[in-house]
Write the structure tokens for this entry.
Amino acid sequence: MNTDHLSKETEKRLLDFFNNVIDPKDLAKAIRQLNYVIALSIVRDEENGTIYCQRENLEKGFYWLNELAEILHPYLEVK
């Protein structure tokens, strides 16, 4: 694991989080569920004419949360 950008403290806290707080697979599932709810809400609101001023932030956040979910528990990998 390349941790050049993570401090030892951050690395330690992440390991503690995944060893003692939540299983990576469970967190990946929660992220996917949250992303689904957010995406569904946005689609429904756009159908009603709602315009999001934070659209770019939503798109970036959605993308990176999906990337994290795939790292924690690959689901979309082509086998």
Observations:
- Residues 24-47 form the longest helix (24 residues).
